């Protein structure tokens, strides 16, 4: 019976990691794949490598928090299976409705439900985790807002790169070791831009591994079924399986269908969100990349929209209506050529000082922000972990699971 429960626990953990790989790969490499900078196969391989690296280097702290510190209840094989089941089902339901739920918040919610039901929840650690959940999106908003307000136009100029025909690199194979050189039509600007896009994707994959591998395997480590690093290898392998299979659709969705978010904006959001998530993972805090990235998008849009407003107007509450909650999807930015664009490199342009631009250029609110869609996304991002918490509490409170 013990062997059967162990095998079932491993299978459920693989299912959770599989779903994580399917959703996280699209977020990390969707922009690169959508701009034809990277193939889906290469993206899946990079996701597997860097997610595993994040899990091995930073992930043990998060595994420790979820597997042994958050609740004093011992994770028996059956308890581990039930907890992982709630995590996997919650993620599956979020995928069905097309809204990326927070894997970390869902995992913490399911484990917290167990702790509440058994009276063994570590309230101090839970308070610390929730505090960071509240603070980190605010940090993401303001960091991205500053970038959007003061630096975004210059970033657009720097990353305004078109793809040339032919291969990015040529290799001289005359010697024993192939020597790379820029392709016949490749410019240094194109090469640097391409490396940045791929590098940011790898950074996001590392961040996802640091935070999310624990969500798949922490209960198995907590009950002693698996040691730390074999469990991380299992979780990383499951993420890789998802990256090579179901992630092909999510990369299409994020890269081509989901949004008009310019690639340079996607780079900013990825860099800000990944840095915050990696930092929190190093502290042992399970962080929500989805919510942090969402607030980063909103902050970046707010910063860009309020470039047309003086600082005094902003303080006095006279910000144009279009800038309130603005997402970075205005037509001008969406049309700006970025890495993978086809319009060539624009000529350097003078950037108007803050607050001195013509207000006639302000995009309409409908170009920047869809309140209904955004409200639905934020609501579901928070309701899915809540459902996992309540369901786990009820099950462990009233059913004799040991």
UniProtKB/TrEMBL annotation:
Q: What is its main location?
A: membrane
For this entry, list what GO says about its biological process: phosphate ion transmembrane transport
Recite the UniProt keywords alphabetically.
Membrane, Phosphate transport, Transmembrane, Transmembrane helix, Transport
Transmembrane residue ranges:
44-63, 75-93, 99-117, 129-152, 228-246, 258-277, 283-302
> What GO CC annotations are associated with the protein?
membrane
Pfam families assigned to the protein according to its UniProt record, in alphabetical order: PHO4 (PF01384)
Q: How does it sit in the membrane?
A: Multi-pass membrane protein
Q: Which family does it belong to?
A: Belongs to the inorganic phosphate transporter (PiT) (TC 2.A.20) family.
Primary role: Potential transporter for phosphate.
Q: What is this protein called?
A: Phosphate transporter
């Amino acid at each position: 019976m013990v062997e059967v429960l162990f095998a079932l626990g491993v299978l459920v953990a693989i299912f959770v990691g599989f779903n994580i790989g399917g959703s996280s790969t699209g977020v990390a490499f969707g922009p690169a794949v959508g701009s034809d900078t990277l193939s889906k196969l290469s993206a899946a391989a990079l996701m597997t490598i860097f997610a595993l690296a994040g899990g091995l280097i930073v992930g043990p702290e998060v595994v420790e928090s979820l597997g042994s510190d958050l609740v004093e209840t011992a994770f028996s094989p059956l308890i581990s299976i039930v907890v992982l089941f709630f995590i996997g089902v919650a993620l599956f339901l979020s995928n069905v409705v097309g809204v990326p739920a927070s894997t970390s918040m869902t995992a913490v919610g399911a484990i917290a439900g167990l702790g509440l039901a058994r009276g063994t929840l570590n309230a101090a650690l839970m308070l610390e985790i929730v505090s960071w959940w509240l603070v980190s999106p605010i940090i993401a908003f303001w960091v991205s807002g500053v970038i959007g307000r003061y630096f975004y136009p210059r970033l657009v100029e720097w990353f305004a790169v078109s793809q040339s025909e032919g291969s990015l690199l040529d290799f001289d194979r005359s010697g024993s070791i192939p020597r790379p050189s820029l392709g016949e039509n490749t410019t240094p600007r194109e090469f640097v831009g391409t490396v940045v896009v791929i590098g940011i994707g790898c950074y996001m994959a590392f961040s996802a591994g640091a935070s999310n591998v624990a969500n798949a395997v922490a209960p198995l480590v907590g009950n002693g079924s698996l040691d730390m690093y074999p469990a991380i290898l299992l979780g990383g392998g499951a993420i890789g399986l998802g990256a090579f299979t179901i992630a092909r659709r999510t990369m299409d969705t994020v890269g081509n269908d989901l949004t008009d978010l310019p690639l340079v904006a996607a780079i900013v959001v990825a860099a800000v969100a990944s840095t915050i998530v990696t930092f929190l993972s190093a502290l042992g805090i399970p962080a929500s990349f989805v919510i942090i990235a969402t607030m980063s998008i909103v902050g970046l849009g707010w910063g860009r929209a309020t470039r047309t407003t003086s600082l005094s107007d902003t303080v006095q509450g006279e910000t144009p209506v279009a800038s309130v909650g603005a997402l970075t999807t205005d037509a001008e930015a969406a049309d700006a050529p970025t890495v993978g664009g086809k319009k060539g490199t624009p000529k350097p342009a003078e950037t108007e000082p803050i607050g001195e631009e013509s207000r006639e250029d302000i995009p309409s609110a409908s170009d920047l922000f869809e309140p209904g869609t955004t409200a639905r996304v934020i609501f579901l991002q928070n309701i899915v972990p809540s459902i996992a918490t309540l369901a786990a509490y009820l099950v462990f409170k009233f059913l004799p699971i040991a």
